[in-house]
Amino acid sequence: MMTPESALQSSIEAIVLASDEPVSQQKLRELLGKEIDSADIRAALAELETVYRGRGINFIQVAGGWQFRTAPEHADLVRRLWQVKAPRLSRSALETLAIIAYRQPTTRAEIEALRGVKVSSQMIATLQERGWIKVLGRKEVPGRPHLYGTGKAFMIDFGLNSLQDLPDSAQLMDEDEIQQLVSGPFDTPTASGHLDFKQETLTQDDDRQSDIGNME
Amino acid sequence: MSEALQTTLIEDEETPQSALPPVHLDQFEGPLDVLLHLIRSQKLDIFDIPMAMITRQYLEILDARKESDDGLDLEIAGDYLVMSSTLIQLKSRMLLPRPEVDDEGNEIDPRAELAAQLIAYEQYRMLAEQLNEQPLMRRDVFTRSLFPEIEDVERPLPKADLDALLLAFRNILKRVGGEVRHHIFSETMSVREQMGVVLERLGGSGGMQLDELLRDTPGCEALVTTVLAILELWRQQSISVVQHENYGAVTLLLKQAAS
Lengths: 216, 259
Description:
The complex is a heterodimer.
Chain A lengths: L3 H15 L6 H8 L5 H14 L5 E6 L2 E6 L4 H8 L8 H13 L4 H8 L5 H9 L3 E6 L7 E5 L1 H6 L17 H13 L5 H23 L1
Antiparallel strand pairs in A: 1-2, 3-4
Chain B lengths: L1 H13 L16 H11 L9 H17 L6 H22 L16 H22 L28 H14 L13 H17 L2 E2 H6 L4 H16 L3 E5 L6 E5 H4 L1
Antiparallel strand pairs in B: 1-3, 2-3
Helix pairs in contact in B: 2-5, 3-4, 7-9
């Protein structure tokens, strides 16, 4: 005899597996019937997440919904099955995407200023086509440039549940902090938190250096 | 402060050209990337960039590219050239005896803006790397999908090979016994039906020109069927077909009428 808990988990598994996109909790409730308590659904989801941890397929929360996906350690196997090569993202695409993700809404001019190079229309079009970025509106400055932000496909494809899940977003400094940082050391070389960051970037760079070394 | 800067500069000039491994512009995502590489790989202080040295190294990389076979791509050259002029301008501003001061009377280091730009860029460069380490859909993780993206799968077409095509065709011929059968028409009711129609029309007039009979037969299939019907009637000796001269008019007569 199936307990009500395992029956609910079983129903959720079926819905999520058969769905083409992540299924939100709200959608689950609609399908399962309003008489099911949302607290029970939440508990079932949490239980399923635990059950599938460490398995070949994982039950994870992305873009505000739930999805079954293969575990990353089996990527090679699945690619062999599908006979596909691992897609490679160019550094320029990644940098553009990172700036849009962390600074949205942002304009092309801001991206160019940060990267110090032009951003091609082709690049913007490609990212838009994949649904990773979208136009959020226009900035009310001369020329009314488009304001870009990330799209739902970005969250799904990068496995993020919300923008808060972006790696290291807390560490990111805004302009004021950077200004303070660069003007600071010349007058008052105090041991503040900023200096800590400086150390940190230096150590992080040591890794990068070896990367560049490998390229040559 | 300005004296201190001057001394630093003089020191810069005396700094022996460190043996930098050769780098290529292609590896970089723009001038900021190149500068960061120069600064970080030599463990220089981003807040105290030795302008003369960095500018010289930067221009060397640019020159190396110009002398290479590819030359400096005009599309990307602009960004790099703007940076070289910025670097030279910073250097010249630092050589001025009078230090620049802000509203509150604090000295402004001309390099502060560049340092800020570099730090901001470095942050995003790092974040881009971290983003790339996220488990990415269709690269690291996969979902069960009702409609697998077939068009994403590269299935290269085989090279065209005329001999292979001929061989394949010969094999097919061999299999069917060297004989290619074209089953164009099997006897169907429609030929029988058309035989009746022809007999009826001939019966009314006692004889008819072939042209006349076929003139109001619509469509290719009906035409073929009618001709087949005539031939069949002729074979059965139900009608006779008379032609008085080559390419002349063909007259169809009912057998009874002819006899």
